[in-house]
Request: fold
Amino acid sequence: MYPTYKAHFFDNFTFTDPRLIYTPVFSQKIDFYLDKLVVPVRDSLERDIDRVMSLASVNKEMQTYMAWFLSLKYETSQVMGHDALFVYVVRKYLESGKVEWLYPEVKDNILKRINALEPLLLDKVAPNLILLDTNNAVHSLHATKARYTLVFFWESTCGHCNSEMPKVLKFYEDFHTKYNLEVYGISTDTSMVKWKAYIKKNNLPWINVNGHLSVSGNYHTLYDIRSTPIMYLLDENKKIMTKFLLIDDITNVILKREEALEKRKKEKMP
Reply:
């Protein structure tokens, strides 16, 4: 029943009539299809984005609007990983010239945005940073050996960071040895005095470096940092597992992964 319903969902939707794009029917129809009828994984969503773009290609105005609608939908989505779909739509349909820009005046800004986002997509190897600690010793993110690495951007005067810090400390205490987890803590403080005093006062036990003491890499641009706290969770190969989640959600991600790995291991046992 579901495959048939999905296959015929657009049977009565007239893509040849661009007047539809100015009605609530358009957004409701496209949103329902992509949000409710498509398996919420990247490959499936990309295939169905291609489907609606193909359906819209019967009318130039409809196609142009569809590309803009989809790029905006995924650029502003709060779902982790949907930024990859924003990049996909822009790269495949707009940057390539297959579809015209609805608003050519924003082209440069959008291309700049996807160039910033693309290296930070899930499953990509995280950009390397080489920063100095409180003793001016060099620490490379990629050289940090751990099963899990939490890249933690924080600031001593940030209220949300101060609220989250006890959770990070407990998380580190519970997971550091058990799951071979390391925290690569990047302070965005410009005051070295405040930064060092905060580390000492709170006894932060992980790798503490400062984003402004860089040997290689600008943390602002490489990690799209506009506020704090920001956290990226990396796997043993430094690939991005999660981003912009906080400790409670990150804890669940690791526990679920470990549970799945343990189950797989038991299934392979004779």
Observations:
- The mean pLDDT is 96.
- The beta strands are 130-133, 138-140, 148-154, 181-187, 207-216, 230-234, 240-243.
